[in-house]
Design goal:
4 helices, six-stranded antiparallel β-sheet, 8 strands, alpha+beta, two-stranded parallel ribbon, globular
């Protein structure tokens, strides 16, 4: 009597060789489907936790930018602290929705979240300005994926501190309001020290900040005019 061929070769019983293209492709399809289903299940089941963690990181960064201390490091504690100390206004501009953050008590600083493409990936952060928009109060990074030890140094306290008290000259061209380089240029203008060894990240952050400041000023002025009391006409 003939024996079944080792390795599952196709015999009278219709067994398919494990080395055949049909078997290999079918096996790969099944494995990929199982892995995809498992990943989707984990992502779906973990979504509430991931959303809460993302909200915590975002709100913690906003609180730090406004100098708000929150004793309890929980998402709910930061939600409550920001609701108590910060007014949040959503403004639409074209296809983009901006969130403007205003400190309720004096000096009524105002901040907004900026986003842009850096050297490797997107950078997002919050920049806080004085009420008259003339001075940067603080800058904090929410998320970045730049090179550790180089571009990632934009998160270091000594770099972020360079922005504190930095004057924004709105009379300058849109791409020259925040300039990286020497502390002061030949014309005496203020500049931010670029990160040594991270020229591309520094240039990208400069471009992002100038672009976002210009867009913010446009929507802020428009929102301010809409919020102002309108004349009722002559009596």
């Amino acid at each position: 009597m003939d024996k079944a061929v080792a390795g599952g070769e196709k015999g009278n019983g219709g067994t398919v060789k494990k080395t055949s293209p049909v078997y290999v492709i079918g096996f790969m399809v099944v494995i990929c489907a199982l892995c995809g289903a498992a990943i989707s299940f984990v992502q779906f089941s973990m979504k509430p936790t991931l959303d809460a963690n993302a909200r915590l990181v975002r709100n913690r960064t906003i609180a730090r930018a406004f100098g708000i201390t929150v004793p309890q490091q929980t998402a709910g504690a930061y939600d409550s602290a920001l609701a108590l100390r910060i007014d949040t206004t959503t403004v639409a501009d074209g296809g983009r929705r901006w969130q403007l953050f205003t400190r309720k008590e004096a000096p009524h600083d105002i901040g907004f979240i900026f986003n842009g493409m850096a050297f490797w990936d997107m950078i997002s952060g919050i920049i806080v300005l004085s009420k008259d928009l003339a001075t940067i109060r603080s800058l904090e990074i929410i998320e970045q994926k730049e090179t550790p030890g180089l571009g990632a140094r934009i998160e270091e306290p000594q770099f972020k501190k360079l922005f504190e008290g930095f004057p924004v000259d709105w009379s300058q061209p849109a791409d020259k309001r925040v300039v990286f380089g020497e502390p002061a240029g030949p014309d005496g203008t203020h500049r931010i020290d670029a990160i040594t060894g991270a020229t591309q990240t520094s240039m990208a952050l400069e471009r992002i900040l100038n672009s976002e400041l210009a867009a913010f000023r446009r929507i802020y002025d428009h929102h301010d005019r809409e919020a102002a009391p309108q004349p009722t006409g002559r009596k």
